[in-house]
Amino acid sequence: MTQGATQAGVRIGIDTGGTFTDIVAVDAATGAMRVTKVASTPKNPAIGLVRGVVEILKSADADIADVTGLAHGTTVATNALLQGAIDSLGLIVTEGFRHVLEIARQSVPDGYGNSYFWVKPDRLVPLHRVREVGGRLDFLGRELRPLDENAVRAAARAFKQQGIEAIGICLIHAYANPEHERRVAAIVAEEYPEAVLSLSCEVLPEYREYERTVTTLVDAFVKPHVGRYLRRIADELGPELRKVPFLVMQSSGGVAGAEQVMRKPITTALSGPAAGALGSAVIAEIAGFPDLVTLDAGGTSTDLCLIEKGRPTVTNGGSVGPFPVRLPMIDIKTIGTGGGSIAWISREGHLKVGPKSAGADPGPMCYPNGGDQPTITDANLVLGRIPPALIGGGIPLDRERARAGLAALAAQLPGDMSPERLAEGIIEIANWNQANAIRQMTVQRGIDPRDFALLSFGGSGPAQSPAVMALVGMKACIVPPNPGNLSAFGLLAVDWRTDHIVTKVMHECAIDVAVVAGIYADLEDDARKTLERDGIAAERVRLVREADIRYAGQSMEVRVVAPGGPVDESFIAGLIDAFHAAHRKTFGYDYRGRQQIELVNVTVSGFGVIERPAMPRLAPREGAVVPPARRPVWFGGAFVDTPIFSRATLAPGETIVGPLVVEEFGSTTVVFPGQALTVDPHGILIIRAESGEAGR
Fold first, then answer.
1. How far is CA 535 from the centre of its chain?
2. Residue 512 has pLDDT above 50, yes or no
3. What is the H or E stretch that residue 516 is in?
C-alpha cells in the first residue's frame, strides 16, 4: 500500500508492557481517539496485541476493513539481551583480532575510583567461539591480502558442529570496503544455511572496531528473537489484518516496516521509551511548551528525555545493559524509581527507595497477591493520593495491608514514626531522585531548568510530578490526556525513518568535495529505496544530511546537520561553521580559526512523513457542574479533606486551586497546596505554582 495522501480510517498504536498492553486508536477523519488496556501475555505477547486490537475496534464500532495502519512498540530485543542466556553466538574476525572483545575499552563505570572493585562483564562471545580468517584491507578499503576462503569454510563447519545459531561477521575496515565480509557471508551460507548472520558492513559501517563488533553481535543475537516474535504476530493477526501496514518503533524515534526491521533488528533494541518521547513532543507543541523534560514513570523505572524547541535529543551511542551499541537513538536517561520501587533500610539505618522493584509479579503490597515489602504505590495509597482501585476498578487495592507493611518498616527506624510519616518520607525520597536526574540532564549541560516545563506521563508519574516540578523550580507540569497511554499515542505521531552512514576520515585541508558529494548521493539513493520498499510515496520522502566531525587530534565527534543545496565548497564551509557552533554549545568553547577539523562520518536519514493525529478540542461543558467527590488526602503532615475530580468532568479553560486530585482510567494527578490546575482547550492539564513564581 502506498502511503501517499491522507487516508480515512483508523490507525492503531500498540505499546506492549510487562503487565499491560496499551492500545490507542485514532480516527484519521475526525481525530477522535479511543484508548484501552489489556493484560499482556508474556509467553506470547502477540496474543495480547491482537486481543487489544480487537477490543479497541469493538469499542470504536469499527471493523478490520477500517484499519489503515498498525504501529507497535516492543521490548523484545531488549528483553532478549537482558534476560536471555547468550549461549549460541559466534564471531568471525580478521586474523590477529581474536581478542577484540577481551580488550574492549579502558573506561571504567563511575570513574577510575571504581576500578579497584569493578569486574569487567562477561564477553558477548567467549574466546573459544571467536574464529579468525586470513585476509586484510587497509583503512581506505584497499586489499592488502586476499581473503582466506578455506579458513572461512573451516569456521562455518566448526560453528555448525557446535550448534551455534547466530554468527556475527566483523572484519577490519569493512566499513571502507564490504567485499570481504559479503564473501564470508556467502561461504558461511553455503556451508551452514541454517545460521543467522549479521554483517558489520550492514549493521554499522563505521570505524571503531570494538563498538562495531558489539553492535553487530547484538544484532545477530536478537535477530532470531525478533524474527520469531514478528512471525507470531503475523500468525495471530490473521489474513485480513496482515494486509494492513505493520510498523515497528525504532530507538531512533522513527518507525519502519516489519521487513526492514527484520534486516536490522538491533534498531529496536532501545525503542521502549522512544515512542513516549515523540508523543510528548506532539503534546508540547499543542500546549505551547516547546522546551521541556519528559518524565515517564511506570512500575519499575522512570525514563527522562530533554526536548528543546519541540525536538528530543538524538544520540548515536548508548548501551543495552552492559553492551555498548552505536546507533541513532533518542537520548533517554533511566533511573530506578517507579510505582513498584521498594522502600528498605540500609545497613547504616538509612531509608532507601529503589532501585529494587516489586515489579508486576508479585507487585506492591496493596495489590491482590502482592509482595511483602512496601513500595511507592503503597505509600501513595496510604496517603490517600491514589484511588482504592486502579485501571477503572480493575485492580482493587488493600490499603490496610499496605499500612501494616509501612508500620513494620517504620518500627525498624529510630523514634515513634507513624506509617503516614514514613509514607511521606518515601514519596519525598522518590521525588528527589527524579528531581536530581532532571538537574543532571539540564544543569550539568548548562541548561537552566527554570526555563523548561515538566511533561509527566505513565501510570505513576502524574501523582508526584507536580511536587518534582516545585523541587526543580520548573515553569509548569503538563499532564496529557490518557497519560498512561501516551507511548501508544506516540507510535501514531512518528514518521518512517531509515538511517545510513559511511565512515570517510578526511582532514580539513584534504577534503575532496567530489568524493563527499558522491557519498551523500549514494546514501540519499539508499534511503529513498529503503522507504520505497515500505511503500512510501515519493512526495512524502524527506532527506536530512548530517556529518560527524571533530577537531584534528580528538578521538570523539560531534554530529551536526549539514546544509542543504549542492555539495560544493560553500557546503563544506557551512558544515565546518555548523561544527564550531555545535562544539561551543555542547562543551562551552570552540577552536574556530585556531584548529582544523576532521570529517569522520557522512550520514543521511530518510523520513517518510505521515499525517500527525489531530487532538480535538474539548467541547464546552453542558449542563450543571458535577460536584467532586471528597476523601482525606495527606498534605503537609496531616490529612486534608480534598476534592476528587473525574477528569472527564473538567471543562476547557477551567482553573482550580489545589489541593485536589484528578482521577482517570490508567493514572491519577495530584495537585498540591499552593498550586493551581488549568485545563487547556485540548484537555491538557497545566499545573503551576498558584503565585506564578515557578520557573522564571
1. 25
2. yes
3. helix 513-533
Among the listed residues 558, 622, 623, 561, the one whose alpha carbon sits nearest the alpha carbon of residue 591: 558
Residue 375 near residue 453, CB atoms below 8 Å: no
Q: What global pTM score does this model have?
A: 0.82
- With beta carbons less than 8 A apart as the criterion, state whether 249 and 72 touch: yes
pLDDT tens digit sequence for 616-672: 788 888 777 788 999 999 999 999 999 999 999 999 999 999 899 999 988 999 999
Q: What pLDDT score was predicted for residue 5?
A: 37
Of 390-394, 395-399, 473-477, give the lowest mean pLDDT range: 390-394
The residue behind cell 572493585 is 117
Which parts of 245-357 fold into alpha helices (H)? 258-263, 274-287
Residue 221 near residue 189, CB atoms below 8 Å? no
What confidence score (pLDDT) does residue 85 get? 61
Is residue 274's pLDDT more than 90? no
In DSSP terms, which residues pair with 455 in a beta bridge? 294, 478
Question: With contact defined as beta carbons under 8 Å apart, do 645 and 566 qualify?
Answer: no
Q: Quote helix, strand, coil % in the chain, to nearest 5.
A: 35, 30, 40
Evaluate if residue 6 carries a pLDDT over 50: no
- The DSSP bridge pattern shows strands 629-635 and 638-646 to be antiparallel
Half-sphere exposure for 192 (CA within 13 Å, toward CB): 23
Report pLDDT digits (tens) over 107-165: 776 665 666 677 777 788 999 999 999 999 998 899 999 999 999 999 999 999 999 98
Quote the pLDDT of residue 694.
Answer: 46
What CA–CA distance (Å, rounded) separates 671 from 635? 10
Strand residue runs (E) in 363-516: 389-390, 395-396, 453-457, 477-479, 496-507
Of 491, 489, 452, the closest CA to residue 472 belongs to 452
DSSP assignment of 109-135: TT-GGGTTT--PPPPSS-GGGEEEE--
Alpha carbon distance 507, 599 (integer Å) = 6
Length of the chain as a residue count:
696
Q: What is the C-alpha to C-alpha distance for residues 519 and 603, in angstroms, rounded to an integer?
A: 9
Residue 107: name the closest of 210, 12, 27 by CA: 210
Average pLDDT score, the chain: 88
468 neighbors 295 (Cβ within 8 angstroms)? yes
Task: Calculate the alpha carbon distances from 117 to 109, 123, 403 in Å.
Answer: 11, 18, 39
Nearest to 260 by CA among 544, 543, 545, 499: 499
Residue-wise DSSP of 594-643: TS-EEEEEEEEEEEE--PPPP-PPPPPP-SSPPPPEEEEEEETTEEEEEE
Query: Above pLDDT 70, what percent of the chain?
Result: 94
- The verdict on whether omega for the bond into residue 483 sits within 30 degrees of 0, i.e. cis, is no
Cβ-defined contacts of 403-409 (< 8 Å, 24+): 405/365, 405/372, 405/373, 405/374, 405/378, 406/343, 406/374, 406/378, 406/379, 406/382, 409/343, 409/344, 409/345, 409/373, 409/374
Contact between 183 and 191 (Cβ < 8 Å): no
What type of residue sits at position 623? Answer: G
DSSP state for residue 485 in the 8-state scheme = G
Q: Which of 62-76, 357-371, 399-413, 604-618 has the highest mean pLDDT?
A: 399-413
163 φ/ψ sector (left φ>0, alpha ψ -120 to 50, else beta): left
Residue 437 to residues 57, 108, 344, 494, 661: CA-CA distances in angstroms? Answer: 39, 21, 21, 26, 25
